[in-house]
Amino acid sequence: MATEITDSNFQDIVANSTKPVMVDFWAVWCGPCRMVAPIVEEMSNEYDGRAVIGKLDVDNNPNVSVQFGIRNIPTILFFKNGEVVDKQVGAAPKAVLMEKLNKLLA
Fold first, then answer.
1. pLDDT by residue (tens digit) across 18-63?
2. Which of 1, 26, 44, 49 has a 20 to 30 A CA-CA distance from 34?
């Protein structure tokens, strides 16, 4: 299951992670977010132990959303060593997300 990321735990889970991190910025009311959700869940199982896969609800966690300039959702940010190294704005197929994450694991 994808890790729930919040304003209060972002630093611990994402910024301090020694593994690559993929964060799905989403909201309950967002249709395309619901399309991406099962892909994010699948990837959280497939990459367990190798990467951190998380979800951040933009409505409940405005600080991190503002910090990274999230204006459209879904937006998926890819972090390595606490820095944003790639992103995907809008719904994307699983293969696209896997390709971006696999580059960080190489």
1. 999 999 999 999 999 999 999 999 999 999 999 999 999 999 999 9
2. 49
- Is residue 30 among the annotated active site residues? yes
Q: Domain segments of the chain: what residues?
A: 3-105
The span from the CA of 61 to the CA of 81, in Å, is 22
| CB-side neighbour CA atoms (13 Å) of 87 | 14
- Catalytic residue, chosen from 33, 56, 76, 97, is 33
Among 22, 23, 30, 39, the one annotated catalytic: 30
Record the pTM: 0.96
Q: Which CATH number describes the domain made up of 3-105?
A: 3.40.30.10
